[in-house]
Amino acid sequence: MIAPFMTRASDRGAMVFLGLLIAVAVLVPALNLLVPPSSPFHVPTYLVALLGKYLCYALLALSIDLIWGYCGILSLGHGAFFALGGYAMGMYLMRQIGTRGVYAHPTLPDFMVFLNWPELPVYWYGFQHFPYAMLMVLLVPGVLAFVFGWFAFRSRVTGVYLSIITQALTFALMLGFFRNNFGFGGNNGLTDFKDILGFNVQAQGTRAALFVASCAALALGFLICRVVVTSKFGKVLIAIRDAEARTRFLGYRVESYKLFVFTLSACMAGVAGALYVPQVGIINPSEFAPANSIEAVIWVAVGGRGTLTGAVLGAVLVNYAKTFFTTGALAPYWLFVLGSLFVAVTLLMPRGIVGTLQHWWNERKDRRAANGGPVALTDPQPAE
Amino acid sequence: MRFFRDGLIALALAVAVLIAIAGPGRAQSFEAALAGFTTDSFRDTEKAINDVAASGHARAADVIAALQEGRLLFDPGAKKVYVRTQAGAIVDAASGEPAASVAPADLNPVRLNNRLRRAVEAALGGLTLLAPDPAKRLEAAQAVFRSRDASALPTLESALDKEADARVKRALAQARAAVILNKADANDDDRLDAVAVIRDRGDQEALALLAALPAGASAEVKKAAADAIGWIEGRLALWNAAQNAWYGLSLGSVLLLAAIGLAITFGVMGVINMAHGEMVMLGAYTTFVVQELIRAHNPALFDYSLIIAVPLAFLVAGAIGILIERGIIRFLYGRPLETLLATWGLSLILQQAVRVAFGASNREVGAPSWMSGAFELGGLTITYGRLWIIVFALSVFALLLGLLRFTRLGLEMRAVTQNRAMAANMGIRTGRIDALTFGLGSGIAGMAGVALSQIDNVSPNLGQSYIIDSFLVVVFGGVGNLWGTLVGALTLGIANKFLEPFAGAVLGKIAILVLIILFIQKRPRGLFALKGRAVEA
After folding, report:
1. A172 inside domain
2. Strand A195-196 with A199-200, pairing
3. What is d(CA B493, CA B245) in angstroms, rounded to the nearest whole number?
């Protein structure tokens, strides 16, 4: 159903996006490290960390867009996968502290010494090795999503029911991680990180490197999503989004498609969380809060669901607005703005920014084509 | 033993007769006993304490109390005993007359050691066992039950004979049994009787008493005690289960209150209203405002504050609900995921508005007098607040059921839910019904807020803590079915409370969440699912 010009246009959009991302990945660290602080072009280190944080959010938004925008699965618990990836990274960073903690214990993190834990719990084993930790960043959210999705999709839990149980999932995880005896630092979470791969987490160079890594992860995530949604597989996903029952009757195993894309999306969210933690310096159970997950959904809605660039744009824009509002005298009004954003976007601009632009652009093309040839079909509307 | 008891009764009677007719003689024995305090020897003091207590003299309690507080003084030269009153005046111990001529410097306090202090306590306990006030006697009986002091036995027996109040009599009998169980020289028959009495008491203290039998007890007594322990433990376990069920019922009624409005908006209309919790919060704040106004203008009405707040909360939350439906939700029918997002945004706005208007901290909502306090029902402790909330939840449920079943509005609501197009053809203004239905669901949430203000913190986040639970209740019970909501709420409440002792509060909650997630996999449409094609539409 997608006309050739549309593919070309979105191809061009993808190229522009990747070009921009590479430019940012080169320029920001260069302006931070090479330009002296006195220069007006200097990018201060805090800004590098802030932009890095936005990029992690953008990757999270991308993972939500992949399942919501292209497969119609609205997960209100994606913050859980993000936080789990973050915790896996946080555990690696905790093990790197070594004897430099307050209690100077060689293996136990401070909070375990404080709680009189005799030894490291089994599930903390191996996290001092970076590759193992990175594997866990992918595996823990991936396996959870696989098991959860396996149960949910096979019994055909769809629509709002799925949304509500994903929310219950992240809520249950939040309650669990708040407990001290879970062994993840209780409500203080994991913090006071020192080193990552031998480099000081606080150092300017490390921050720049993490920023570049975030850009790379986002670019990679974008490319993976793009490959998925433009392939034949992606067409089936869109078919599932628009008419699930019909797709099933056509002989496709809907639950397998959903399960694959849900698990992939959870792994992406995990990577986003893993990059997020060293840049903000802390991970605690409030990351599991259902409100966080819903907020991430609105980034996608603002940018335009069903458009990959839109998800990224939405995440950066909304988070920039959040930073702008919450750091000044306007702080009490931020929730009004965020709340109105939810209402306004769903009522007035259901396609989001990029989606609306694309729609407008296509209509213009159609009108031009209609002047010369037969009237083109309007693009299909998603049926919930 | 019977002989002994009869003898004691005779003795007590004799004492009573003496008290009645032989005042002067009694006074003499009291004064003679007092003289024991003047020798400054612990042995004499102990005898004096017991004699004074046994004399039954009107001043005996005062004297012993003064001794306990170090206010009993004696003049070693004149062999006279005085009491320093609480106010500091010196009075004669025997007569209570002020003793002006005595110089305080000549007086020494009567000294006590630990052994004597126990004797003093026992004597005081014995004296209050005969006090005219039943509450005092009950307290004294319980004190003896705990102290198991053998020296109180004679007083206990005479008190038991005279007692008319059934409750006090039971407490006295239990105290006597406790004393006998621990008395070294009691015989087996008495001990067996005592075990039976203690068994009937049936609480933790009885358990402790039976578990700590003195070494001299015979095998028979030990066996009886072991049996009694088993019996009590079984009974306590039963009561414990009943108490858990009660707590569960109470939690279930709270869940029911929070979820019942949602059962209308989500279950009947199919609208995902994430701002539902905020309707509950608005109801709680309405209660707060009503109470503030009453406190400021007419404090006498305070007991009626909740009754005034219930309709007001219904109107406030209902009006806001209608506004939301007309302003936002009607544009989003048929797009449940968008409705979810828009109402979530709305909930953020409402929370922040309340935070700006009332501040972020918790607000104090008081309980009217008829909602505070508790009563005992067998082994259950039932607080009036919880009881009223259960009653309130069930009556709201019944009212709503009646409204849907028997009124024109209910009929039209059901018609619109079942087939919107046909209902419109029949002349029902579906838009108006949508608004009213949503207003009804929101108004009920507001009423729930009045009840929840009694058991939860009234803060802008109040609604947030209920929204996930409410959705789970509705989904668990089955969408579109009010009975399902009732069963779902009570089941979840009771299951939660029974899991708590094993798993702890947080793990219990997690277990419930996981169980519901698994349950929804098994029955995606809930416990009482609607059947047929209408479900898929």
Report:
1. yes
2. antiparallel
3. 9
Chain B contact present for A340, CB below 8 A: yes
The per-residue pLDDT for range A292-334, each reduced to its tens digit, is: 999 999 899 999 989 999 999 999 999 999 999 988 788 888 8
Write the residue in B332, B338, B344 that is nearest to A294 by C-beta: B344
In B, minimum Cα distance to A181 occurs at B507
- How many angstroms separate the CA atoms of B271 and A376, rounded? 35
Q: Domain for residue A53, yes or no?
A: yes
Residue B328 tokens, joined: 């936002």
Chain B CB contacts of A341 below 8 Å: 345
Overall size of chain B counted in residues: 537
At residue A195, what are phi and psi to the nearest 5 degrees? -120, 150
Q: From A260, A73, A166, A156, select the one nearest B521 (Cα to Cα).
A: A156
Of B344, B349, B518, Cβ closest to residue A336? B349
> Is there a domain that residue A349 lies in?
yes
Tell me the C-alpha distance between B37 and B70, whole Å.
Answer: 13
Which tens digit of pLDDT belongs to each residue from B388-436?
A: 999 999 999 999 999 989 999 999 988 888 888 898 999 999 899 999 9
Phi, psi (deg, nearest 5) at residue A3: -70, 150
Q: Test A332 with B346 for CB contact under 8 angstroms.
A: no
Q: Which of A347, A348, A381 to mutate to test the interface with B (most CBs of B within 10 A)?
A: A347
Mutual angle of helices A352-372 and A308-326, in 10-degree steps: 140
Q: Look up the ipTM and state it.
A: 0.83
**Chain A hits for B347, Cβ within 8 Å:** 339
Contact B508, B496 (CB under 8 A): yes
C-alpha distances in Å from residue B231, one per residue of A113, B203, B411:
46, 11, 56
If one counts the domains in chain A, the total is 1
The pTM of the full predicted model, rounded to 2 decimals, is: 0.74
The percent of chain A in helix, strand and coil, each rounded to the nearest 5, is 75, 0, 25
Which domain does A92 fall in, by range? 2-369
Name every chain A residue with its beta carbon within 8 A of the beta carbon of B345.
298, 338-343, 346
As to burial, measured by CB atoms within 10 angstroms (0-12 exposed, 13-18 middle, 19+ buried), residue A231 is exposed
Token code pair at residue B203 = 């609480």
Q: Per DSSP, which regions of B306-379 are E strands?
A: 374-377
Q: Choose the closest CB to B336 out of A160, A172, A298.
A: A160
- Residue A361 included in any domain: yes
Q: Which residue spans within B385-445 are E strands per DSSP?
A: none
Q: Which of A147, A154, A158, A165 to mutate to test the interface with B (most CBs of B within 10 A)?
A: A165
User: How confident is residue A81, by pLDDT bands cut at 50, 70 and 90?
Assistant: very high
As given in the structure block, the two tokens for residue B325 are 């439906």
Find the closest chain B residue to A338 by CA distance.
B345
Of the partner residues B347, B356, B520, the one whose CB lies closest to the CB of residue A161: B520
Listed residue (A268, A368, A322) closest to A64, CA to CA:
A268
CA-wise closest residue to B409 among B432, B442, B379, B375? B432
Residue in B332, B342, B506 closest to A179 by CB: B506
Nearest-CA distance A11 → chain B (Å): 29
Q: Which residues in chain B are closer than 8 Å to A350, comparing Cβ atoms?
A: 335, 338
Among B521, B525, B530, most A C-beta atoms within 10 A, so best to mutate, is B521
Q: DSSP assignment of A38-55, as one string?
A: TSTT---HHHHHHHHHHH
A336 to chain B: closest CA residue: B349
